[in-house]
Amino acid sequence: MMQFSSKNWFYLGCLVMMCSILLPFDKKPLAIGVFALFALITIIKNKLKFNLKFFLINACVSILFLISLLYTENLDTGFKKIEQTASLLVFPWYFAFLVNSKYKLYGNSKVLYKLLYAFILSAILLNLYYFLYFYFTEFTFADVLYHYSHLIDDKIEGYMIHPIYLSMHLCLSLIFLMFIPLKRNILNFTIRGLLVFLIVFFMFLMSKKGPMIAIGLIALFYFFKHNKSSLIRGLGVSIICLCVCFLFINDRANRNFKELFSIDTIENNVTSTNIRYSIYKNAIVIFKEEPLIGYGIGDSKNTLFEKNKETSDLLFAGQYNTHNQYLSFLLALGIIGTTIIIICYIIVFKNQKSKNNYLAIYTIAFYALVMLTENILERQDGVIYFSYFSCFLQTISTQELPWRKNNV
């Protein structure tokens, strides 16, 4: 019988998390449980010490949510929110034992790349499964192409996922591919090209503006800031240009992005952009009534619902959240809590910059950009992977990785 070292058990736990997007919605907590068990084995066997600073910084959102229970009125909603965002506490707790350990879990770059590839392939396989399932069971090829983003959120019991989160998984896959070295031979170029094509193809089927703009900005910065190769820069610019051209060819994508240049209230024109604009106006109004500490995690969402009810039947019927994570923080935690969160993540960025850990920087920056247009902590598919990747990538030992010196 093969004997596993504690290091191997931990790698296996990480592998389970990387592949967990393939699990049904109600089985994802089991993946967290498996990870927690294997991480605990590693911690106990190696007598790893707890890094309190790492925990407090990375669990700051959850800690502030808990504090807000002291002044929120709707405790039932508050505790449900705490339960929903438990990942923001769980992953910082376990990774706090690993971040400064002499036990170099991620020094082996091959292991890291295999884990990243596991997530990339899982994201692509999940999309292929959705696409082929719809095509072979009920819809024509053209119908699947046009209605893909609606079908994945409605048609498969247990596997339904909001297209925003699936689009974010694909964008993360692109970021990970940027940091996995490409061997210069025909086979590897072909495989990498196929992976990129599939990722971009499914991204444009969903055409979600927030994630696509965020990954576009990250990609531009990556190609011009970190890559010294004119060939790679040219390739990167070519890919971005092709994507822009595709916006004009794809009717849905074209229409979605045109909304950004005609912002108005929903009374004049109902679009996703105008809905956000109207929500932002209402959120700012109620924020001004409790600016310092907010309404608490139990009351913030209901307070917004009531304001939406006053101003628009459409907004109230849609039960919309703020569609901006920072506005959500302001309503729940006020200026004080939101400022603490921002300071904590500035510290994270500075720490990772000092280690040349650009993979962590770009991943967290991507999430930070998407938060401008989405409440990514509202659902498990957002909160689990935000918390996991932001902690996991901070604990990488970059010493043996080829991109540690500014030339990714």
TrEMBL record:
PANTHER family: LIPOPOLYSACCHARIDE BIOSYNTHESIS PROTEIN PA4999-RELATED, TEICHURONIC ACID BIOSYNTHESIS PROTEIN TUAE. It is a multi-pass membrane protein. Keywords: Membrane, Transmembrane, Transmembrane helix. It comes from Croceibacter atlanticus (strain ATCC BAA-628 / JCM 21780 / CIP 108009 / IAM 15332 / KCTC 12090 / HTCC2559). The keyword Glycosyltransferase does not apply. The lineage of its organism: Bacteria, Pseudomonadati, Bacteroidota, Flavobacteriia, Flavobacteriales. InterPro entries: O-antigen_ligase-rel_domated, WaaL-like. This is O-antigen ligase-related domain-containing protein. GO terms for cellular component: membrane. The chain crosses the membrane at residues 9-25, 31-48, 55-72, 84-103, 115-136, 164-182, 194-224, 230-249, 326-348, 360-377. It is found in: Membrane. Residues 195-341 form the O-antigen ligase-related domain. The keyword Transmembrane applies.
